[in-house]
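Researcher: Let's continue the batch. This sequence belongs to Copper-exporting P-type ATPase, and it's 793 residues. Same format as the previous ones, please.
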Amino acid sequence: MGEKNVQLTIGGMTCAACSSRIERVLNKQESVTASVNLAMEKATISFDPTQTSLKDIEGKIEKLGFEVKKTKLELDVKGMTCAACSARIEKVVNKLEGVVLATVNLPLERGTVEYVTGVTSEEEIIKRIEKIGFQASVRKEEKEELSKDKEVARQKRMFLIALIFSLPLFVTMVDHFYPEEMLLPHWFMNGYLQWALATPVQFYAGLQFYKGAFKSLRGGSSNMDVLVAMGTSAAYFYSVWLVLQGEVYLFFETSAVIITLILLGKLLEARAKGRTSEAIKKLMGLQAKKAIVIRDGVESEIAIEDVRMNDVVVVKPGEKIPVDGIVVEGYTTIDESMLTGESIPVDKTIDDEVIGATINKHGSFKFKATKVGKETTLAQIIKVVEDAQGSKAPIQRLADIISGYFVPVAVLIAVISFVTWYFILGASFQDALINFTAVLVIACPCALGLATPTSIMVGTGRGAENGILYKGGEHLERAHKTDTVVLDKTGTITKGEPELTDVIPVQNWEKAELLRLAASIEKGSEHPLGQAIVKAAKEKDIVLSSVEQFEAIPGHGLKAVFEGKEVLIGTRKLLRENSIDFKDLEAEMTKLESDGKTAMLVSVNGQLSGVIAVADQVKESSKEAVHQLKKMGYTVIMLTGDNERTAKAIAKQVDIDHVFSEVLPDQKAFKIKELKDQGKKVIMVGDGINDAPALALADIGMAIGTGTDVAMEAADITLMRGDLRSIPEAIKLSRATMRNIKQNLFWAFIYNSIGLPIAAMGLLAPWIAGAAMAFSSVSVVSNSLRLKRVKIK
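Model: Same format as before. Here are the structure tokens for Copper-exporting P-type ATPase:
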């Protein structure tokens, strides 16, 4: 084998030292010559594949702390008929050098390939898929619906043709059971007429099975088409031979009826599969189609796809907001129920954020587009749902492995059945052939390939309709295997919009002056408690002053220099560390905290000046959500940076028995690890940036969708509505989906496991085997669709 040359794209290099380090390490490897271009972020590498591998080279680069960049390719894949096809494509593409992971979704007829840029290409991947007998193209979303409709129409046409020619043959089959009564005219039993009727079914309606079988065998594998083509061809060609011999009892009806029933199954399956992705259609239907933008001082209506960043968009009453943006002119109220689930319209004025697909209720306003196209919130939601629907749950791996072996095993059993009946048991050739055909037909593993992905598609779609976004099938599977729910307090249990409740000055301080001092300092803080103080001061028309120095002490409070004085605002610990006595306010602090308020001590130049209390209102739904979780057998824990007294007061309001209080932001993940070390399976629910490490560490991280992008990125499940009742709903949906998958797998296995030996024993007519095989797929997809009606609320 000769030398191999590749060009890798490398991320994370910041200076020449980075590129030279990569070069030095790679060139130390035997048979490797590497040259790294920092400006282009490219590494040109030649190596001997017998001495080292591309995977080893990638490993070395990543071990140094750099990233070998990869490309994600979304494909439409046509020509698959069962799980053996999708498994074959995955196997072949995953063997391509440079491919990191290839997954194929049979019901969606889609593939996702992640590959190393510069090692392989779109063209190479598509060429490899086509070489094994399938059609692949880069996915074009807008054509997808039309393509599905065409497929349903084609299957319907083929089924009707097959039905018209098969019905007379089916009647002749009935006549076989009563030969002495001759239910049909003598000419109807003519072998040449039956041959003429069976031929269009076999070679026109059934052509797709021959094509699929040829491509599959050419690619070195076998699938459902191989079984159908073999079984029906055996019955058809043996009947042709009998006609030429002048025989009367023929088997044309066997091949024709099998093909007709399988086509009926495919038609019903195509229609049902179309319904599994209704959630995506509904989400896409929420989008506005047009937008009015101001360009060069002129208002013009354009397609939503043509809206650009920083365009000024005009929205009139009753219209959908086309894209995400910031209000620059006007005042209105907006119905955001599609996003938050809240039916009460939200007031919007200048500098407020608006989200695409929400509905403008009253006033006209203008906003500047900040997110367009695939960047909008709705587009991101659709992308999450699509990715989840296209992903594989771990439970599917078992079905993939089994279906990969099923077809060759089925052919072997069919041959053994034929040999046993004809050569050992002395049955007639006709009986042995009938049993051979029945075994082949009943063995098709279609239902097995559909069992898991159809349930995942419907489950994730149902979740999206209820504001629950699962990032992948694995999270949908794992969510119900948990026993502990940890809830962050601020913004999760509470609304995250604290209000100032008390200002208690001491010494010679006045209320207004103490509030002015605190608000002026808190103006520099992003903490919700500080914002509540600033908001209250502005409402009282207090003029705030600038601060000379400002320092935030995470989990403790603030330190600042204001008008020449050194000021501290924060916890008892902060004042204690600075040797400031606060015993005069201890009783007042205790009372405030017992009422569930967060109390902050204020000191000026080392002297206690007062206490300011802020309260965050508990969400109306929090108590009910906690009750539901407890009823389901979950341990519910509240996690907060508040002191123990305040934390317990809030916990009491929502009936939470376990509280982790005074937890600093960087300790949240440590608390989750503690619980996991005790053997708990933990769901962490949070909404802030400081929750992200804990969300990532938990068995399942749930982000409140009204929170920050960072939290949502770290989480496995996003609860778009900010309503804690979505937590038990997400768990119930996970349980229902897994139950549904297990039912599907049971029925898929039962059809094949019971049908195979019955067919081999000669107790199953081939046409019944065809009907059973066709309807096994339909029953699996139909069972998956039941998830649309499952009760989760």
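Researcher: Any comment?
Model: The longest helix spans residues 141-177.
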